[in-house]
Amino acid sequence: xxxxxxxxxxxxxxxxxxxxxxxxxxxxxxxxxxxxxxxxxxxxxxxxxxxxxxxxxxxxxxxxxxxxxxxxxxxxxxxxxxxxxxxxxxxxxxxxxxxxxxxx
Length: 104
Hints:
Elements: H1 4-9, H2 13-26, H3 37-46, H4 63-69, H5 73-103
């Protein structure tokens, strides 16, 4: 079973509502309309390319575009932090292996 958020993102509104209704029933919530018709219309207007689609989204980016995305503001800080951590971890491991020979 997929999550309702994933189903909504892929345009599968009916399945998402069915899962949300079953979750509400399990939690003893008596709402009949988990997603109001206005909510469904809003979601359909926000994702017009996904309405009626049941497959995954098409990925049109190339590998170089995806690598460049790591340097854009949403991911830049995490990417550079991880690069620094890996650099210093590798440097420490290299130093430890050189120092280890001096012990014995």
